[in-house]
Amino acid sequence: MTSNKENVGKTNINWYPGHMAKTRREIIQDLRIIDIVIELLDARIPIASQNPDIAKLIKGKKKIVVLNKCDLADEKENQRWVSYFENKNIPAALVDANSGKGIDNCIKKIEKLMEEIQTKQAEKGRVGRKIKAMILGIPNVGKSSFINRIAKRTTAEVGNKPGVTKQKQWIRINEKIELLDTPGVLWPKFESEDVALKLAFTGTIKETVLEKTEVAYELVKFLLNNEREKLCNRYGLSNEYIEEVLNRDNPENFNIYEIMLEIGRKRGCIVSGGNIDDEKTAKIILDDFKNGKIGKITLECPNGDVSHAT
Ligand code: G4P
Questions:
Q1: What residues does 96 pair with on adjacent strands?
Q2: Rounded alpha-carbon distances, angstroms, from residue 211 to 148, 207, 273, 308
Q3: How confident is the model at residue 277 (pLDDT cuts 50, 70, 90)?
Q4: How far is the CA of 142 from the centre of ligand 1 (A)?
Q5: pLDDT digits (tens, 9 = 90+) for 206-251
């Protein structure tokens, strides 16, 4: 890796400690009136997209995990991730908040989780009270899209402001469940370059200290190692060509960079003198990946069998 590891902690400059503390306070306050937390994760990176402090933050409240953007992730891995969470006794639902696929199943799982809470409430003589749910997740995992889907709204009324606004509005999901209109926006993990790269590959974090070209280089490297066929199909590269370049007598990173430039060449990212514009190339590769054009790709596998981005 060529990037400066000291910079990893600054992956998103918005999340300075004061900001995190304020967000945390606001979310804790909101959680007082919440029965169920819906934790939104990115199905392509269910571990890297977790907030590092969520367990402490929600302190034993009932939780359901939503693996959003499941349309962009590998279908088999999606099922494995659902089993992974459910084996830990955490209900999990696959959702594509863009199309609404999986929302009904998600509501069913919330209702099931709710039954346990309602039984306890009934034991205390509290019957007929609506269950209140709240969404938590790091930026760009699809919280606003999810809320709009579940509320059957078409416009995004929810901003990307960290924390939760003061006036509370509730969305009626059905006769028993209400969802807080504004999600809690949590800070992402800043723990390692591997996590920072996964967040950058998926477009979860945009303000990164890593150069776009470096992120794209690392993505090409990851795809060459793990999803070569999909990379080759997308950009019309043959496996023979890849093998020939990778076996050239250069440092490995030169060869991978050369493959990245070949993608740029094929996509017409050429500047004066016939050179390849590597920034334009990087943008194409990253946009293609983020939008699922290279294929349905999961970057992390469950059960500790984690594929590393680097
Ligand atoms: P947030 O509130 O958690 O910050 O996320 P938001 O709903 O704004 O969604 C972030 C981006 O992810 C949006 O793309 C949205 O369309 C996309 N998205 C959300 N859920 C899904 C999903 O289930 N599948 C897919 N494929 N995409 C989803 P965008 O407006 O193009 O923004 P950006 O990608 O340029 O950041």
A1: 101
A2: 33, 10, 24, 19
A3: very high
A4: 5
A5: 766 678 999 999 999 999 999 999 999 999 999 999 999 999 999 9
Looking up residue 164, the CATH number of its domain turns out to be 3.40.50.300
Residues 106 and 247 in one domain: no
- Model confidence at 166, pLDDT cuts 50, 70, 90, reads low
In a domain, 295, yes or no: no
Is the residue at 300 inside a domain?
no
Q: Is 210 in the pocket of ligand 1 (CB under 6 A)?
A: no
Residue 235 and residue 118 in one domain? no
Q: What is the DSSP letter of 8?
A: G
- Of the residues 39, 50, 66, 98, which should be mutated to test ligand 1's pocket, given the most ligand atoms within 8 Å of the CB? 98
User: Across all residues in the chain, what is the average pLDDT?
Assistant: 88
Residue nearest to atom 34 of ligand 1 (CA): 203
* For residue 154, pLDDT beyond 90: no
Q: Is the CB of 39 under 6 A from ligand 1?
A: no
The structure tokens listed for 272 are 């004066």
For ligand 1, whether the C-beta of 140 sits within 6 Å is: yes
Answer for the pair 107, 147: CB distance below 8 angstroms, yes or no: no
